[in-house]
Design a protein that fits this description.
Layout: E1 2-7, E2 20-23, E3 27-29, H1 34-37, H2 40-45, E4 48-50, H3 56-59, H4 62-69, E5 77-81, H5 83-92, E6 113-117, E7 124-126, E8 129-135, E9 143-149, E10 155-158, H6 167-173, E11 178-184, H7 192-197, H8 203-210, E12 218-222, H9 229-238, E13 251-253
Parallel strand pairs: 3-4, 4-5, 5-6, 10-11, 11-12
Antiparallel strand pairs: 1-2, 1-13, 2-3, 7-8, 8-9, 9-10
Bound molecules: zinc ion (2 copies).
One zinc ion (ZN) binds at residues 10, 19, 55, 57-58, 161, 223.
């Protein structure tokens, strides 16, 4: 399973791209920066996007991606998420005011984009990937995703935006082939109250949750706020754990062995 970190931040500035991960070139987890991170040819290869929640830092590049793909791809772009998120996209983005409703273009019977509902803990199959949404603890309904490849046998977990939570770790501990975890860490330790109120982690909150993970695997940190980057990376180093927070632009290959 090839995991490409297109954008790994919870804020936007010149170097800092918003959250998007690409798996095996065709499936994106969240859509913060798909159009700024990928050239046009690679954008045409994206056939499926799984969205964790409705916040703009995870959905903001959808309008531009479908606009670039329009008329140039063979099958419709499929956007997968909970009914809550799909309704939000319909009402607040693809509403013919902020952006055209591409689920009706070029016509309703053969649209260039479809909205595909997912239910918590129900696994969907897209080509050789199995994706299971697991609810987490954010300020709007939000799901983590467990992604398993039937080709490589490897599994990864993307927590999406969350503060301390339990179910994802219980499920992760049952997965023998779990090789990587991408986990939220958004604010420095002196902003713990804000982190909890907004459904995010600080380095100390993160350390608490990582104790629940009983499997050895690569830990990748995402969603650092650019304004606190230096302070937070120091605090993450101080935890003395093996964490990779410098992941944007990197490509990881996960196998079951
Ligand atoms: Zn976010
Ligand atoms: Zn969020």
């Amino acid at each position: 399973m090839k995991l490409e970190i297109l954008g790994s931040y919870g804020g936007n500035a010149n170097f800092y791209k918003l959250t998007s991960f690409l798996i095996d070139d065709f499936l994106a987890l969240d859509a913060g920066c798909l159009t700024t991170a990928l050239n046009l040819d690679r954008q045409y290869q994206v056939t499926d996007i799984v969205i964790s929640h409705s916040h703009m830092d995870h959905t903001g590049s959808l309008p531009y991606l479908i606009d670039n793909q329009f008329g140039l791809t063979e099958s419709p772009l499929r956007i997968w998420s909970s009914p809550f998120v799909l309704d939000a996209l319909r009402q607040h983005i693809f509403n013919d005011v902020i952006w055209p409703d591409f689920t009706k273009l070029p016509n309703e019977s053969q649209p260039c984009m479809t909205l595909e509902p997912m239910s918590p803990l129900e696994t969907i199959h897209i080509r050789h990937l199995r994706i299971t949404p697991i609810p987490v603890n954010h300020i709007v309904p939000c799901c983590a995703f467990l992604v398993e490849s039937t080709l490589s046998g490897a599994a990864i977990l993307y927590t999406a935006d969350t503060t301390n939570t339990d179910q994802i770790w219980e499920i992760a501990n049952q997965k023998e082939n779990l090789k990587g975890v991408i986990v939220d860490c958004s604010f420095p330790n002196n902003m713990t109250d804000l982190a909890i109120a907004s459904g995010h982690m600080t380095p100390q909150l993160l350390a608490k949750d990582l104790k629940k993970l009983k499997r050895p695997c690569k830990i990748m940190i995402y969603h650092l706020k650019p304004s606190f980057d230096g302070k937070m990376t120091q605090e993450l180093d101080d935890l003395g754990l093996e964490l990779d927070y410098d992941i944007q632009g990197k490509v990881f290959e996960f196998t079951s062995t």
